[in-house]
Amino acid sequence: MRSFSSIRKLVMAAALILVPASSFAGVFISVNIAPPVLPVYTQPLCPGDGYIWTPGYWAYGPDGYYWVPGVWVQPPMVGYLWTPGYWGWGGSAFIFHAGYWGPHIGFYGGVNYGFGYTGHGYEGGYWNHGVFAYNRSVNNINVTNVHNVYNRTVVVNNYNRVSYNGGHGGIDARATPQEEAAMRDHRLSPTASQISHRDAAAQDRGQLASVNHGRPQVTAMRSVNQRAFNQQQRVANGVRSGQMTAGETRNIESREASINRQAANDRAANNGRLTQQEHQQINQRQNNVSRSINNDTHNAARQPQARPQARPQARPAAHAAPAREERR
Predict the structure, then answer these.
(1) What is the reported pLDDT for 321?
(2) Which pLDDT does position 226 carry in this prediction?
(3) Any idea what the Cα angle at residue 276 is, between residues 47 and 56, rounded to 5°?
(4) Which of 42, 154, 229, 314 places its Cα 20 to 30 Å from the Cα of 283?
(5) What phi-psi label fits residue 158: left (phi over 0), alpha (psi between -120 and 50 degrees) or beta?
(6) Closest C-alpha among 176, 68, 171, 81 to residue 124
(7) Which of 171, 187, 214 is nearest to 81 (CA)?
(8) Cα separation of 323 and 129, whole Å?
(9) CA nearest 81: which of 116, 45, 127?
(10) Which residue intervals of the chain are DSSP H helices?
């Protein structure tokens, strides 16, 4: 059994290397091991009007399952909603059904992803004459940034954190006629920012289930561009714990500053935007920094803890008052 698993992993790795990342959504992926349970996390604040919440999920790569953080993204067009991807038992392996954009919510395995994705449909909001209305009962909304809101209680019947449909221990759910009809609607693949977001998670070893044991370092982001902030938080955590030395910290901060300068220069030369090639270059450099942070926080180097200096003891005065009278 072990040799079969090793061969399967090698074949899977080769297939993933040969397939371009941009075409991942159309790749047929099957795995003989069930994905981990969904981690519990807090939804970041919605960045502004028009953003749609896309929940986090377990994806699969050459090194096994890895967590793709939940993130607020802008839909490819007004009126479209996000149907999350899900893992389903296919009789001999778990098959990934990729998420997609469409005018209606389709079937996503009955998985309760939270924040309005209760397992069937979406209770987080709806499009109203070209404007998206947000349900504040399930979304983290700041009314200063987002104005079209309402409150509607959402009843959830599925409270488990199982992340797959069918098979041993999986969710027993079937598509409704409405969900089947939605799957026949016009559908759009994940946007370029979603693909970049997923690829970034794939390059971060801290997101691997084999490394984090089902507790990813980053569970959710306010936006795809928040990755640099999250990496700064990882550095801060490493400094506080003593896992990152002063030299390692300076190196990471210098590289982050260089990336920020590159992004600023590229935007200035392109009317405030980044081209797809520039996005890829920035993402690759951030991937390298992320790997360095992971290495720095897991190597043998430690920041020496400062020892408190001994205070010189003052000589008692000739007529010192009793100690109990000094405590006021």
Answers:
(1) 36
(2) 61
(3) 45
(4) 42
(5) beta
(6) 81
(7) 187
(8) 76
(9) 127
(10) 2-18, 177-183, 192-203, 209-212, 227-241, 246-268, 276-296, 323-326
Q: Using CA atoms, how far apart are residues 57 and 54, in angstroms rounded to an integer? A: 9
Backbone angles phi, psi at 172, to 5 degrees: -95, 90
Distance CA 287, CA 293 (A): 10
Q: What is the mean pLDDT of residues 215-235?
A: 77
- On whether the CB atoms of residues 216 and 67 are closer than 8 A, the answer is yes
What's the rounded Cα separation, in Å, for the pair 170 and 88?
8
| pLDDT value at residue 274 | 65
User: Please, what is the average pLDDT of the chain?
Assistant: 81
Mean pLDDT along residues 209-217: 93
Could you report the per-residue pLDDT of 236-247, keeping only the tens digit for each? 677 778 888 888
Torsion sign (Cα): 16, 4, 213, 85: positive
